Each structure stands twice: as structure tokens, then as C-alpha cells.
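Give me the fold.
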Amino acid sequence: MDYVLRTKGLSKKYADCQAVDRVSVTVNKGDIYGLIGENGAGKSTLMKMIAGLVEPTEGIIELFGTTKIQEERYRIGCVIESPALYEELTAEQNMEVFRKAYGLTNRESIHQILEMMGLGKAAKKQVRKFSLGMKQRLAIGIALLGNPDFLILDEPINGLDPTGIQEMRNLILTLNREKRITIMISSHILSELSKIATKYGIMKNGRLIDEVTEKDIATKCQCCLKLKVSDAVKGAMLIENRLHSTSYEVAEDNVLRVFEYVDNPNVINSLFVQEGIQVYECSVSQESLEDYFNEKIQGGNRND
């Protein structure tokens, strides 16, 4: 599959702070790539390096199949951290300022983009009178002025009300599905991210600790038996050796998640009791993206 972005061992160090540590990500053409991580995980720094706003300490960035990234960065649009807008100017005037700054000649694209952003009727309105959601949409509109193939969005739904979140979600899906724009997006609202992302990268302390597709997440978050036991490691060995199954997960605090025997938990219970493993809790559970993320951040291990 064609890829839009690939990094290899990408790092950024500030004095004694390793902000990004040997991160290797792959964003394929057509992806909505959800970048997940706690505050300070390195998400924004990674995005800034990709966009050319921060110089990497080491590592390789490939864009659209080449390492000649300066020649390809014109194909990127980005909104990283707070939208940089001129509050006293109108939406239309903001677009015009950035159009000239980018050296673009097609002035008609301003009106087309404002309409697409749902800001056509607010084109003559001062930005200082905009809601946060309107400002976010205008910032994305500015990022679209150069007709990019790859869009980088850092927390675009942060602080929005439910209506604004829904509007932003629909906009991102429209850009991806109708305009064929590949998107990398970071967000703390994982329930919303799970509605649009096709691939995820999870960062912790500057490192990429997992990279999974939407299909992988669906598999990993499937219905399972959740057992809290006296010895999860021994229980895992019994599941493999006696039940010939590797469809399980060992989590924190002696918790096992078993993805078979959901309809017949007595098989697991009986085996454990026979082998001297105490079962304190046994329930049917289905994980969410938040559960999976939290488990990865806390250091759980999965064996498929």
C-alpha cells in the first residue's frame, strides 16, 4: 500500500528532555491516523517535526515515498496547537492574508473553502466573535488553501461542545472520504476518535508503544472473560497447554482476559480450581478504546 508518511527512529531532544524517542510510524494513503497519548507524551512535537516546524535531533522522515521532504511539504496542511488567527479581521480577510503569504493565485478557493467549512454566511464576520468551533474550522480552512494531500490536526476537538464535536467529526470524515485527504489527528476524546480513525499510534514518554489498525482494535476489544485470579501467569500457561488456546491477555493485578469460552466460563473456572488457582472474580467484559489505551499506558501485555 502507498504510504503518505513514514518515520524511522525519529527523535527530538531539548537539553535533558527527550521529547520524542526513536519513533517509527507509518501513515498509509487514505488513513485517518489517530495519535493517542497523555499530555507530554510527545504527540505535538512529533507532528511539528513532520510539518517542518521543529528540526529533529535524529531519525528519518519520508513523505510520499521520498526523503526529499522539503520538496513534498507543500502537500501538507497543518493545525498544531492553538489556531493562529487575526482576531480583528473577518474570516474572509484571514483567508486572504494566508493565501497571499502562501503565494497562491486562486482567490476563488477562499469562498469555496469557507462554504465547505460551514462558514460561508460568516465570511464577513470578525473572528473575535467566532465560537471556538468556528475558529477551529477556519484554521482548518486555512490549512486547506494549498489543496493538501495530507492534513495534520492537533487536538481539533479539544474544548468543543457536543455540537461542535459532531460538526468537526463530520468535517474530518468529509475531507477524508470525499476530498481523499489523508489525515493525522491527535485527541484526548477517545470515544470520538474511535468513530473516525482507521489506524492508531499510542505514545508514552516520547515513545511509540503500539501501532494498530481499526481492525486490530475491533479484535482486541472484542467480548471476553475477565478473570481476577491468584496467579495470572500460571493461568495463562494452563490456557495454552491444557486448552490449546493463545487467545488471551495478561493484564495488571493478576487479571486475565480470555477471548474464548465466553459462553462457557465453567471450563476455565474448573481448570483453574483443579490446578490450585483461586478465582476471585469472573465476568463477561467488552473493552472500549479507552480501556485498551489505559491498559497500554499502564503496561499490560497481550498475547494473540
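Residues 222-286 form a domain with the Alpha-Beta Plaits fold (CATH 3.30.70).
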